[in-house]
Hints:
mainly beta; four-stranded antiparallel sheet
Amino acid sequence: QVLLVESGGGLVQAGGSLRLSCAASGRSFSTNAMGWFRQTPGKGRDFVTHINWNGRRTYYAESVEGRFTVSRDNAKDMVYLQMNSLKPEDTAVYYCAAHYSGAYYDPASYDYWGQGTQVTVSS
């Protein structure tokens, strides 16, 4: 079946860095725009970043602008999220998702989701 699988989460101290990866299984997502969202317990999934199909256009939430960088390698069907200068408020489960249609910041615009990877930032 079609799957997206995130990896790279873990525990890091404030100011540290993590690199998340998103791998496709079942079919290629190289023609899809992709997004990263994050969710804390009892809350909805918040927009983090979005990258168009060829990697030439990106969007970021204000809360991560200048600290996070999204990239992709379509030859490998991989999407990445480099997270620098991490803050405790970045603690969440991070999800990658494949965009289908609609607003890039809206979770409802994405059809396929990974299982999530936990990022915990300690102070």
